[in-house]
Each structure stands twice: as structure tokens, then as C-alpha cells.
Amino acid sequence: VFLHSLTGKWNLEDYIGHDLYIVAASAVVYNALGRLQQDHDLRLSFKQYVEYPATLCIPLLLVAFTLGNGAKIYKADFFQVPTDFWLNIYWLLLCGTLIYLLGYGSRALLVLRQDPRSRTVANIYLVSSAAGIAACLTRLATAFIPQLQALDAGSTLVWI
User: Rounded to an integer, what distance in angstroms lies between the CA atom of residue 13 and that of residue 108?
Assistant: First the structure.
């Protein structure tokens, strides 16, 4: 309610949370790459393959969020906001970026698994990344298949 009173836009806390999810996924990639590459190579790889896509995605998300139902219709559970063209673009951008980042980080984590000192943590992050990718794929399905929205399954399926 506080953010809505300042901006006139609903669900901004969800948009901010999604931005932080992109930052968190980027941090996982950065930490994994940091164990595999030298400082100069790390900076170049991270900037090109992680920082640029994430930096481009966040303002595009804001545009799609603001133009669509995400900012117009309040629901306590953002997954229950009925999608329109712009909210579908929002979900496509967000989930596509997260799938890319989590997948990119998983490649580095698979290499880290070879080091016995990193195996346990790498395995935990790999399972978490797989769960994140599965949730994104589920959200895309529930956003783009109207029958799933009509059943109100969008929220339930993603949370499972």
C-alpha cells in the first residue's frame, strides 16, 4: 500500500523482488566463475554474459510491468494477476533471463563439482538452480496458457 500511495502502481514489491532475484542469480554466477577464472577473464566473461543481459532486462521489465496488468491490478499473490500482452512480455523477459542466468551458472557449477572441496555447495546450488528453472518454465506455461489461469492453477503450480 505504501509504494502504491507513492507511485499509483500496484505490486511494485513483486517487481523489486524479481529484480533482486536477477541480481541474486547473477551473484551465483559471479561466485562460481570467480572460482574458475582469473580476475581479468572473470570480469570480461561476467560483463559480457551476465552483467549486460541483466542490466538490459531490469529496465525492460519495468516498462512491461508498468504498461500491463502487473501495475494495474492488485493481488496479494502476484502469480494470480491475470496476464495481458504486457504482463506476458514481463514474464517472458523475467523467466527467460532467469533461465539463462541459472543455466549459465549451472555450467560453472558442474565444473566446480569436480573439486571435492566444492562438491557439496555446488550440488546444493545445482539443485536450487534446477528448481528455479523448473519454476520459471512452469510460470511461463501458466502465463501463456489461459486454461491454467482460469483454473487458478498458475499460483499453485509455480509454488509447488
Answer: 31
What phi and psi, each to the nearest 5 degrees, are found at residue 2?
-60, -50
Cα angle value 150/94/46 (rounded, 5°): 160
Q: What is the number of residues in the chain? A: 160
Q: Please say whether the beta carbons of 71 and 10 come within 8 A.
A: yes
Q: What is the pLDDT of residues 24-44, one digit of tens each?
A: 999 999 999 998 988 888 889
- Of 37 and 11, the structure prediction assigns the larger pLDDT to 11
List the one residue out of 54, 22, 26, 35 whose CA is nearest residue 122.
35
pLDDT in tens, 46-59: 999 999 999 999 99
What residue has cell string 555446488?
122
Encode 12-81 in three state secondary structure: HHHHHHHHHHHHHHHHHHHHHHHHHCCHHHHHHHHHHHHHHHHHHHHHHHHHHHHHCHHHHCCCCCHHHC
Q: 40: exposed, middle or buried (C-beta count within 10 Å: 0-12, 13-18, 19+)? A: exposed
Give tens-digit pLDDT for 81-94: 999 999 999 999 99
